Backbone:
């Protein structure tokens, strides 16, 4: 085969970039089908209660309304209308009870979406209101039970033990025991204990959740903005009792996802509505409705450390309560997968971790960029900094004394390989000029700096499949179900295929996920795609390459020939015809954790890590805080596309910045009071740090495709605690609850100075 190309490691422009900036990129939200109806929902106005009656008469009498659908109507077409990746606990429309404010109860279908919305407002629901529980710690012992019965979904190999505990709000409890923590605490020179909490936030993808279902002739086609087309097909087929071959799920580029669009969200309801209406149905959520659909877990984290006189952490005890809201979604997996890293990226001989997934009467919580890790790092890195300062040890030096190094066993029982935790700390300290004098400001404006480091185990086990087709003209098509939602995965997969096949990038196309065309992929989440799908594409391309070599041998060419690919096909078929198809599956090895001890000798195929350093300025008279400089350094193995990696790191950091200083779902008596971008404040251009840097260490993930691994979440890990640590360094107050707003800093300063402060 002629020509040479080296594409892995080069910064190619994003394949879809031109289409996006010219407004020509295809999004499901813009799709319209002939004869399509629009769906608008009537939603619960209470957090917990029994449905006495639903009066739909006024809605049905509204001109232009085709159907008004309730949960009872759904049951006629789908007898078991419950879905969910961990438990089948979520009804497509509320049945008998509502469990959170904003839960959909009934839906109006009309050709005009405005008519449907007006009619939905005319539906009257009568409730028997029940007591509710909103706090995750309170939910552990509350008499308010959100679910009387739980049906495990049996979806994931690592959650086969999942059962839930009857007459409690516990969806999953994960316990890890490593060494003898009680003995180490009894013998410790110093013991430190703190409690930290995080708030409920939302993903805010700018392309709202959307599904268009078209059911006809015992077949269903669903167009959806999803990160999980293969799982959606599986779950819809299960609900229907049909073979997966009768369900087709198609998606395109996503206008953001961040975990909001994993597993089933709008698709099951759109499917049922199309079955009832016998027409295509479009269910598009508003920004407000997204707040009621899926969120980020609020959490409470109690952490204690035993430390010797030399600053070595000898033991850690962690208790984490995850507020999963009314439906589990993927919360149990967050609880287990993130839970075992709660002690941090440190070499601690004695660790005790208890991690609990809890039901409450809040909107459901699930995966959000970081998969629970940012909540944990917020706590353990704030706690670690407090220890260092109280012991008079430099915060970077304290971390390096305790850091987990390659070849050492993490608390879960898995040996760390290719985890460059110390290297990113060193790189961060270098970029921050940590050992040089620092201007601490003067007068009422004080300056400080802080660092933090976090890590994550890649989710496992998961499966990815890919097909690579080499056409007769020498061009190439990659078929995979990884969803490009802005992270640049299409470009990375094309670069991997290009590298293996020696085909220029401009001759490669990546097909958007379509379950009738692209093979299985578990989901696009958890920074798994570069590693898992990257391997599948690499192997499929290698399979195609071997078949090309076999073809050359078949037509009598010697080894080492330099014949162009198009000529191979002409000599074989007598014309430009045919194709070579390579295919592959990839699933890494995995050992499920022991249910009693939480231990696994092979819990993850790779570790990812990120460290953040910030310099802040705090006005002691107002509590206003400004970030002067933010530096993020990550271990990403080898970069497939360095520029894309840098933007991934900075994008993740900015997203976490919003969760740190401004974003919060304000819930009063169960009701969300700020469900709009006017009141729920995400970062704008004026909120950016004055100076922002993204970097990564030169490393090699030995079991990764071309040495690479995922990076989409690593930039989120250290942001929140680094800011809190810098604030304490500047003005001597410690914030333990997010978000860190000016009022919180001002109140803490008043307490420190002994000033009385009214709650008004």
Residues:
């Amino acid at each position: 085969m002629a020509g040479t190309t080296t594409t892995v490691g080069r910064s190619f422009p994003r394949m879809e970039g031109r289409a996006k900036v010219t407004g020509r990129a295809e999004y499901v939200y813009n799709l319209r089908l002939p004869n399509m109806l629009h769906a608008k929902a009537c939603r619960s106005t209470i957090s917990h209660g029994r449905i006495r009656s639903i009066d739909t008469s006024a809605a049905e009498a509204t001109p232009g309304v085709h159907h008004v659908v309730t949960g009872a109507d759904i049951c006629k077409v789908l007898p078991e209308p419950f879905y969910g990746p961990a438990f089948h606990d979520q009804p497509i429309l509320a049945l008998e009870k509502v469990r959170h404010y904003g839960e959909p109860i009934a839906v109006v279908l009309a050709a005009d979406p405005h008519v449907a919305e007006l009619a939905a407002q005319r539906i009257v629901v009568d409730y028997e209101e029940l007591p509710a529980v909103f706090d995750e710690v309170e939910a552990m012992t509350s008499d308010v039970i959100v679910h009387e019965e739980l049906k495990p979904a049996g979806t994931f190999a690592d959650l086969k033990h999942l059962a839930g505990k009857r007459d409690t709000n516990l969806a999953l409890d994960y316990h890890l025991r490593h060494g003898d923590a009680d003995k180490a605490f009894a013998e410790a020179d110093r013991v430190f204990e703190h409690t930290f909490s995080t708030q409920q936030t939302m993903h805010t993808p700018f392309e709202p959740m959307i599904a268009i279902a078209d059911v006809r002739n015992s077949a269903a086609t669903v167009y959806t903005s999803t990160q999980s087309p293969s799982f959606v097909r599986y779950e819809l087929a299960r609900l229907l009792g049909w073979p997966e071959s009768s369900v087709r799920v198609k998606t395109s580029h996503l206008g953001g996802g961040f975990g909001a669009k994993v597993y089933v969200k709008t698709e099951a309801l759109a499917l049922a509505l199309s079955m009832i209406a016998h027409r295509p149905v479009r269910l598009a959520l508003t920004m407000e409705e997204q707040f009621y659909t899926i969120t980020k877990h609020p959490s409470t984290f109690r952490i204690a450390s035993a430390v010797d006189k030399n600053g070595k952490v000898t033991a850690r005890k962690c208790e984490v309560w995850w507020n999963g809201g009314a439906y589990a979604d993927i919360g149990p997996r967050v609880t287990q997968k993130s839970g075992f890293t709660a002690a941090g990226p440190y070499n601690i001989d004695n660790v005790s971790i208890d991690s609990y997934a809890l039901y409450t009467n809040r909107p459901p919580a699930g995966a959000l960029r970081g998969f629970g890790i940012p909540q944990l790092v917020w706590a353990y890195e704030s706690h670690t900094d407090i220890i260092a300062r109280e012991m008079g040890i430099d915060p970077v030096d304290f971390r390096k004394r305790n850091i987990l190094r390659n070849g050492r066993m993490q608390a879960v029982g898995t040996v760390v390989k290719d985890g460059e935790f110390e290297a990113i700390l060193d790189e961060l300290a270098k970029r921050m000029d940590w050992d040089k004098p620092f201007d601490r400001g003067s007068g009422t404006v004080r300056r400080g700096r802080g660092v933090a480091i976090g890590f994550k185990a890649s989710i496992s086990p998961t499966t990815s499949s890919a097909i690579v087709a080499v056409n007769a003209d020498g061009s190439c098509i990659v078929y995979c179900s990884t969803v490009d939602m802005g992270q640049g995965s299409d470009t990375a997969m094309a670069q991997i295929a290009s590298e293996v096949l020696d085909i220029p990038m401009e001759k490669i196309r990546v097909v958007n996920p379509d379950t009738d065309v692209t093979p299985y992929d578990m989901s696009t989440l958890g920074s798994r795609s570069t590693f898992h799908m990257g391997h599948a594409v690499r192997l499929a391309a290698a399979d195609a390459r071997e078949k090309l070599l076999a073809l050359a041998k078949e037509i009598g060419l010697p080894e080492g020939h330099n014949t162009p690919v198009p000529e191979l096909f002409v000599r074989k078929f007598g014309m430009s015809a045919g194709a070579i198809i390579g295919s592959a599956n990839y699933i890494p090895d995995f050992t499920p954790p022991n249910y009693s001890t939480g231990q696994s000798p092979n819990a993850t195929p790779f570790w990812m890590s990120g460290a953040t350093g910030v310099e802040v300025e705090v006005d002691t008279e107002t509590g206003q805080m400004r970030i002067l400089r933010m530096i993020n350094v990550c271990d990403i193995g080898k970069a497939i596309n360095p520029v894309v990696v840098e933007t991934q790191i900075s994008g993740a950091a900015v997203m976490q910045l919003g969760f740190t200083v401004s974003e919060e779902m304000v819930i009063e008596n169960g009701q969300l009071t700020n469900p709009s971008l006017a009141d729920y404040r995400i970062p704008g251009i004026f909120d950016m740090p004055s100076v922002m840097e993204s970097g990564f260490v030169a490393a090699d993930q030995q079991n990764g495709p071309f040495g690479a691994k995922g990076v989409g979440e690593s930039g989120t890990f250290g942001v929140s605690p680094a800011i809190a640590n810098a604030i304490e360094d500047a003005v001597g107050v410690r914030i333990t609850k997010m978000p860190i707003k000016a009022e919180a800093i001002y109140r803490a300063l008043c307490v420190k100075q002994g000033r009385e402060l009214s709650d008004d």
Remarks:
- The longest strand covers residues 445-457.
- The mean pLDDT is 96.
- The CA atoms of residues 598 and 744 lie 37 Å apart.
- The two ends are 76 Å apart (CA to CA).
